[in-house]
Fold these 4 entries.
Entry 1:
Amino acid sequence: VTGSGKTGLGIIYLEEALLAGLPTLILDPKGDMTNLMLTFPELRPADFEPWIDEGEARKEGKTPTELATEKAEQSTKGLGWWDQDGSRIRELRDSAGFTIYTPGSTAGVPLNIIGSLSAPAADWDQEAEALRDEIEGFVSGLLGLVEVEADPISSREHILLANLIENAWRQGRSLDMASLLAEIQRPPLRKLGVFELDTFFPEKDRLALAMKLNGLVASPAFSSWIDGPDLDIESLLWKDGKPQAAIVYLAHLSEEERQFIVTLILSKVITWMRSQAGTGDLRALVYMDEVFGFVPPTAEPPAKKPILTLLKQARAYGVGLLLSTQNPVDLDYKAMSNAGTWCIGRLQTERDKARILEALQSARGDTDVEQLDRTISGLEKRQFLLHNTHEPEPVLF
């Protein structure tokens, strides 16, 4: 909920993970998680001043220097309440590397999203399912960008593109957008399923699809989608043996572009994860600051499948998935029932509270719903109810 402290709680989880030597991949749809970079071990007003909003200072009748001094004192005092000081901030900065990635923009470090068409070094006999999921994520997101129906089962555009990419990857061939557009017009396949390709997807219709995708490639903004390092999960999580906080900033993108990036990144996380040995220990944490619209109860946006796959399978590979939302009523039940740890803050509506209570009761039948209802209704700002499915009672903190 707005003002409940959920983003602050998310930052605490991430800082503690990084201090423990765990890399984190942070998907930031709203642009709040860049605050992870604002760490000042000396806690000097001069460190805070460049980040002060002059408009906010004016509104409070202060100069930026005065407001910076106030913020520095506030931070020093706040840390003191918890018997901490700047040395712990320095420890965090020394423990991990921090990078803000801005796909589709050069404001931070851009990411070469289309480089994802490079043939992966993977064994198709062993990893066909994971590779197909990655292809599905890429194709669904790409078609979403040009507003083409992208159902993997019924959309002929999706079926064609997925087959073209799989065919190339099985031969060890990498693609780029130019070669993909050429193959749409002259596919190196004779049939799709039992139909001749020209019957299933006539040439003039394939040309129309190629033209749509070419319009995307021809737009001036497209060059920023192929700038920067390739999207490689291992490189995002580790650099020179040091755990990373890889913040993927998405606030500047349209809804379709966000879906594309989130789907693609999480599909790649799944492929990477399945190449790791199974473990009972946490080896990496994936965090999404606002999951509204990505895993809704009825619709099937492209990102929903990889999110549900991670919720079901990631823990076996030592990968944690932490999702945050102020709209529990807009979360798919399957997502909620696969969560082992819940932190419930102040809720905006009775519907949201009812949804949480219902999900908690279905997760464990012995829940005292009336008691939980009273506790949740009485939560204050920055106060949370921690519900762990392996513990007998929830804890207030």
Entry 2:
Amino acid sequence: MIINRVIPETGETEYTSGDAEYIREVRNRLLAGTDYLALSDVTMSDAMKTYRQKLRDIPQQSSFPTTFIMPLKPE
């Protein structure tokens, strides 16, 4: 993946790739790293819910897999 630019308004990063399988693997690892927040005894913040949804939506971005935006993980 090649970094094209960081979007100043959101801090998200735009990448160029072309390897849809690799991008999905990265996305799946990032989602798995936050799965513990989706347990029934944890209250997930709205920012984290939005982040996880943006990760799931990466393959639906109009220019995927050539260019795509990777969301910024909230604190």
Entry 3:
Amino acid sequence: MKNLIPLLGFFIVAISFTSCKSDQYKKAEAVTYNYVRYIDSVTNKGSSNAVKDWNKIAKGFEKKSNALNIEIDKLEDVKIFDNKINPATAKYEDFRDLIFEKKLEKEKNLTSK
């Protein structure tokens, strides 16, 4: 009976530690999903709308990216999330480059007239 109490205490601590860790992974999974979904929605709307609303898009991306980094920094193993984040970030950067090219082209056309 005396040995059972410390053993029970150990199991409670171990379970609570595991529970906290899984909660962190669940939060990181949700933030990662929101990040990827945001990038998909922005890139699928088309570039003509993005040129007009670029400041809003960039601020939204920054907000999602900051939230993602905060949650990911709390984790030890992030390889699972990197496989989702890196392609989405590359997609956003390609889209951003396209929008900047279109903005420069638009400005060049306005100044040449």
Entry 4:
Amino acid sequence: MTQTPSTVVFVSLTGDEEIKVYDLDSSSGALRLRTTNPAHGPSGALFLHPTLDVLYDAHVESTTLASFRLDKTTGQVTLLNSVDTGIGIPAHSVTDSQGRYLLTAYYGGGGITVHRLGEDGSIGEQIQHVQTGPKAHAVHISPDDRFVIVPHVCPTNKTSQFRFDTETGLLTENEPAVLLPPDDDTGPRHICFRPAGDVAYIINEQGKTISAHRYDSASGTLERFQHLSTLPEGWQQEGGSTAHVEVHPNGRWAYGSNRGHDSIVGFNIAEDGSLTPFGHYPVPASPRSFNIDPSGRFLYCAGEAADRMKCFRVDPESGALEAFDEIEVGHKPFWVMATTLD
């Protein structure tokens, strides 16, 4: 008998050093806690192996990376292994499409590492550390595994561009090696592509802005063509920052999180990839991470300073968000990941 795939929401908790797994009701979007798992460190960004039942956790506020065996039936995650890179504050990790290498960006120690992965998905030897400067905050690898993009917030304030060798796992500088933002106070932080793969959106931490870029899939490079605020027109705010960007699965809308203003901003995406804001939606304090479920019907946003997560329905015609629940998740939620377990 074939098991029906279940949709779940992972929440990593830096303060509690836990990874929680919630069942998502596909009709209502309601969440029910399935498991609470020790993260064996200050849990940060999560990533699922593309072919194995393995979960990776970049232990933010530390120097370690961890791999976990995921039981898709129970939702339990069990430590496979952890490695200490000696490089401070791993901010984000991804694998290549074949699951042979783990690439990690570092906010504290700076740069990006490449680790070989074992046949069981465990983290193996570190084969490279490219020092691009501190404040690297995300790493994106192209679907064809040929190129890697790494945004850095201020004061490094740049986006690094690499070529990636799938045979050796090594990175080399692309041409150009760096994409500079429009000013000295922008801070590229996270990146997301629309489904067509031709336009990338980078949300800028210090600038409280979002930038749209044409992506050349032949060269693996970005060219900015739009730069606009993530805040409501006329809003005056001391401090604050942005955090995360996501594109809806249908490619019609993009969303970004504002810390300080404590909101999710929604943008319409035109045919040419340009953005037009359509609304701001209140969320718990200091929204670091949010995610849209694979069906595109629900969005979940955690407030790192509030220890709570807000649940939204996504209007299928307009992309507008309608809040329907808010739950306590635990201390310092860092990462939210909604996915279907086949």
